[in-house]
Amino acid sequence: MLGDRLMFRLAYRNFGDHESLVLNHTVKVDTREGIRWYEVRNPVNGPTVYQQGTYAPDDSVTNPLSRWMGSVAMDKQGDLAAGFSASGPNDFPSVRYTGRAAGDPLGQLTQAEQVLFTGTGPQTEVEGRWGDYSDLTVDPTDDCTFWYTQEYLASDTVVIGTWRTRIGSFRFPTCK
Q: What count of Cα atoms within 13 Å lies in the side-chain half-sphere of residue 128?
C-alpha cells in the first residue's frame, strides 16, 4: 500500500472567488483500502482544508472491495470526481469512479460509484506491483468532461505484460 504518498496528481483550480487544490492517497480501512481525498482552499494566502473524506463503502461482508491508486479533479462548477482501481475476493481489478456535485454535503462522495471497465484477470504476482499512476483530468475544451486513465489486467500476471490501460470519460449532468 502507498498510503504514505500522495497519488498523481495534485489538481489546482482558480474559481475567481477562491482557489482549490484537490489531492488524494490510499488508506487502510479495516481489512480493505480506500481513497482519502482533500480539498484545500486558498493555498497561497492561508491554506485551509475545506473538506475531506475517505471513500471505502462496504459492499458486503462476503465481498468487500478495496479501492486504491486514485486520482481526483474538479470541473468548472466545482464538482469533484475521484477515479480509482477496485478489486475484491470475487472481483477482478476494475476501473471505477465516483464524485460529488458542488452543492452536495461537504466531505462526502455522494454520486453512485460507476464501473468504466472490469479487467479479465487477477493480480497473483508475488511482487504485487500495481502501476504507477492513474490520471483524472478535466477536458479544457468544455471544462466539464472528466477523462480517466487506469490500469487493468487482461489475464493473470504470471505472464508479464498483461497489464493494459483503459481510458474513459464522464461528466456530471448539471455541468453545462
A: 3
Amino acid (one-letter) located at 81: A
> Measured between alpha carbons, how far is 142 from 135 in angstroms, rounded to an integer?
18
Residues 109/99, Cβ–Cβ less than 8 Å: yes
10-30 tens-digit pLDDT: 899 999 999 999 999 999 998
Report phi then psi at 19, rounded to 5.
Answer: -115, 150
Name the grid cell of 85. Answer: 482501481
The number of angstroms, rounded, from the C-alpha of 169 to the middle of its chain's C-alpha atoms is 13
Global confidence as pTM: 0.90
Express each pLDDT in 39-74 by its tens digit.
Answer: 999 998 899 999 999 999 976 666 689 998 999 999
